[in-house]
Request: fold
Amino acid sequence: MSEVAGVLRLARTAALRIAGPLDLAARSLAGRSHLPPLWLRRHAGPPGKFESAAREMAAFLDRMGLPEPDDDVLDVGCGPGAMAGELARRIGPGAHYVGFDVHAPSIRWCRGRFGSDPRLSFVLAPIASPYGSRRGEPATSYRFPMEDAGAGLVLAKSVFTHLLEPEARHYLAECRRAVKPGRAAIVTALLFDGQAPGADLARQAFPFGDAAGHVRWRRSLRPTAAVAYERLFFFAMIEEAGLRVESMTAGYFPGAERVTGQDILVLRH
Reply:
């Protein structure tokens, strides 16, 4: 059945590529020709939210005073660079931004789009993934492209919403390894309270799940298309990784009738 889903995704991508010239013309007229092509924006999520979601996260970082001008930044799952430009405007001339992703076309586009800025680099993660190549190393063994305690800020926006438990545990541990002591890792997730009244709504929005009810997903054919975690279970995973939750800004939690956004967690160690 996963093969059927793959064929449907390929067909969608082909249709979006065909629509690409019209999209480029519309973007050029609107002064937005700097954006990735339509099919790459759709790979990263709803195309209409590509810019607004990045602006909202940038505004959140500004409220937190992040990043500091001298911070090296690690952008986990950078996709086609939605946050790269925002972060580039917020770091100084001696700082560096590193974005990585499993999707080779997105990385190629980012390298072309931002290649003139020596502070920015983009790494293709050789991970076997439904969002990239089917061949590669497991996500549970991948080492983020950042030295130990090298990042003043680690950002994982819309990443844990596509990771099941083993991969999520490893990515949390890698966030802990990469971030400097006392500095922040910002992650977004879809969390629900398994004991609250909203839990029923969460089960409706994410009808499939593990036997324990800690992890739920929206589509049976593509579990990683949208993954939600029971809040206390996810917090325990964070603690086991050596991190602590400093704050949480609720987006989806504790289970709304309609998903309006992801929960934003500020993690430190």
Remarks:
- The two ends are 41 Å apart (CA to CA).
- The chain has nine helices and eleven strands.
- Residues 2-18 form the longest helix (17 residues).
